[in-house]
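Write out this protein's structure.
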Amino acid sequence: MKQHKTMKAAIVGTGFIGKQHYEAIRRLPNTGVVAVVDADATKIAAFAQEYGIEHAFTSMEELLDNLEIDVVHICTPNFLHYPMAKLALERGVNVFCEKPLSLTAHESEDLVRIAKDKQVHHAVNLNYRSNVMVREMRHRIQNEQIGNVLMIQSEYIQDWLMFDTDYDWHFLPKMVGPSRTVADIGTHVFDIVQFVTNSKIKEVFANLVTVYPQRFQREQRGETFSQEYVGEAKAVDVVNEDAAMIIARLDNGAQVSIVLSQVTGGYKNGLEIVVSGSKSSLTWKQEMADRLIVGNRLGGNEMLYADPKYVDRSLSDFISLPNGHAVGWADAFKNSIHEFYKTIQNDVYQSDSIVDFNEGHYLMKLVEATLESNKTKQWVTIHE
């Protein structure tokens, strides 16, 4: 049996998502978080001490100049993804980057070029495709167990920006690019639709919605999804979207409807996908992540749980716990990183396991296509 060396990882960013990366990496065999990076020296020192991380740096350059690592995890606001990924690639370091890969398709295309030139491993964290029931959905579709795919419906609905007093860095184009909701949660929907159907989205027609032309900005404390606001409020203009309605066509001919919202009360992380087939349908809901619903017309519906007995044998590695012990978001997150680490250790890509920078670049083209469609009120075709 091949013995893998211990993977040495560094995490850039100490907010909500950086902590999730740390906890996921700690669950993996033959891995260790050896360094953490944050521009705030006081914050990074406290983080390193709390989590027992040996090295703490205030810049990517300082990290790469002083430490040999196998992979860097980029967990920063969007505008830093491109320059940090570029720097790591140019130094020959493998990169696992949060989505979206960049602010523009021009930037993501540049990362694809550099990664190919440097021959290093690269991935974007679209972790929902690493949930075992999403993979079971893909398996059943590919094996035509639901018949021909007729149509796909998907939605990703949240409420964390529901009030006009909700305001943070996600509203600043210089930090997130020209899109907010589509780039933030729409990329997850694009990826999961393409993944389960094994087809590319080739055309989109989009209507983007900004429900509050103005919001009220106050001093923010806390992390994303758990902000607290203090002090006096000032009115600021909103220039990116709160929601989106998108219809799309896949290269296999199937049509897709997508609804996105970050302003819908009562929905915390409501990602759902329904694939309608000529024999049956499949439904997966992120907030019931350990279950897959098979919808039948002539008989009763089925609810499958995440257990090796109910899914294809090849997917058992994606299940960490026995039936009844819910497999959820953190497990898919861990699986996503584990699959990437295995590609580094084996020096070979497993094409359906990770979202490499080529796919991340295509997602950026999809984001820009929705912006163009919203502007022109026409269908937009995405080219390879």
